[in-house]
Amino acid sequence: MTKSKFHADKSITNVRSIFPTIITLILLVSCGKTPSHVIPEEKMAKIMADIHTGEAVVEANNSSYRSDSARKTLMQSICVRHGVSVAELDTSLYWYGHHLQEYMKVYDKTISILEGRIAEAEKAGGKNTDRTIRESIDGDSVNIWPGTNYRRNSILNPSDFISFTFGSDRYWERGDRYTLSARPVNPHSPIYMTLVVSYNDGTSEYVTLNQGSEGSKHLTLVLDSTKTATNLFGSIHYKATKGEVSYLDSLSLVRTRGRNDNVKARSGQHIVHTR
């Protein structure tokens, strides 16, 4: 074997996985390590757990958090607690959004943290009626969007991301379809959407959308009818420009029951192994 061929073979074996992204056709992810400018997995999971808890507080006390400045103050307080800036958090969220295997690892850890907090709260003070990991509702076609159905975009927003997480519950069925939708009003920037599902066999599937600002946006994820899903999570990324006042209207996450074309419907989805 020649020296050059040996080095080429060695380089190939060091590549952990290859993922398609919306920025490049192929993005190599080596060794599962985050760059120095990205918040590490363990710390990111703790921050995301606090963000989801904060979002639950906002929903429960919406009258106290009507203004962008109040929500931004809440986000800043979470960042200060963890010793990061909002800009660093958004940069990290953007990086994780384009490295889906690491993104899913973070969310698995986030869910474990939230479930631990719920268990501790119930142990210490009885039942928790406002669970941070939200339960869905029954029906063949239902909108399970967890927050308000619109968002006002400005540079005062606490973050460029809207994120959500669902744990499996009695209403989930194999082969379910989830469609994330948004209608931009007077937008200045493109919209990036992500939907991810994890299964109990250690695999996950995801879909992404990155489109210009005009027209309604729809992204559909179809669950594998042969597997048991454990968690569903996703995000919408929109970065407002200076002086911009626009809206993301008609926000929804609609679940419909599966059909008989599960394999065909899932043909464009990306599968990764997280174990």
Our count of helices gives 6
Rg, alpha carbons:
19 Å
Output the helix-strand order: HEEHHHHEEEEEEEEEHE
Describe the main β-sheet briefly.
5 strands, antiparallel
Instruction: Estimate percent helicity.
Output: 25-40%
Tell me the fraction of residues in β-strands, as a range: 25-35%
Overall geometry? globular
Going by helix content, strand content and strand pairing, the class is alpha+beta
Q: Cα distance, first to last residue?
A: 33 Å
Number of strands: 12
- Unreliable segments (pLDDT under 50, ≥5 consecutive)? 3-32
Mean pLDDT: 78
If you had to describe this structure to a student in words, what would you say it looks like?
This protein is globular. Mean pLDDT is 78; it is low at 3-32. The strands form three sheets. Strands 3, 4, 6, 9 and 11 form a five-stranded antiparallel beta sheet that branches. 32% of the residues lie in helices and 28% in strands. The protein has helices at residues 3-13, 41-60, 68-82, 86-97, 100-125, 262-265, and strands at residues 17-19, 27-29, 141-143, 151-153, 161-167, 177-185, 191-199, 203-211, 217-222, 229-237, 246-256, 270-273. The chain is α+β, with helices and mostly antiparallel strands.
